[in-house]
Design brief:
Elements lengths: L10 E5 L5 E7 L9 E5 L4 E3 L4 E5 L2 E8 L2 E3 L7 E11 L17 E9 L2
Antiparallel strand pairs: 1-2, 2-3, 3-4, 4-7, 5-6, 6-8, 8-9
Length: 118
């Protein structure tokens, strides 16, 4: 069976509308947490995904809606109930072969919207 690329974990910097760094996006596997994507503000509040609904997006990572299954801290993400990723570019696995155990970063951009119940 030939080797193939697979997703290890997401990783990124969260920017607000003015371009200021407001937090990070990462995979739990890289921080000793349960698997799945996380979003964390610079103030320390974080939310974790749950119940994903995705739609393929040719040439880019999937469009996504996630129910937040857990939140921590008192910052901007503390009351998030849904995460929505409606626009993405890039982020797909490299073409061609791969070497066993090799990791490579694949750039992508996305719009994320965070919703809280009122």
């Amino acid at each position: 069976m030939p080797l193939a690329w697979k997703l290890h974990a997401p990783g990124g910097i969260l920017l607000d509308a003015s371009g200021a760094n407001v937090g990070s996006h990462y995979g739990g596997v890289d921080r000793g947490l349960p698997p799945g994507p996380y979003w964390e503000s610079k103030m320390g509040a974080a939310c974790m995904r749950g119940n994903p609904a995705s739609v393929t997006n040719a040439g880019s990572i999937a469009l996504l809606r996630l129910e937040a299954s857990d939140t921590t801290g008192a910052g901007v993400f503390s009351k998030v109930s849904f995460v929505h990723r409606p626009r993405t570019t890039g982020g797909v696995a490299p073409t061609g072969g791969c070497d066993a155990g090799k990791q490579t970063e694949v750039p992508y951009t996305a719009k994320y919207y965070f919703y809280a119940k009122q």
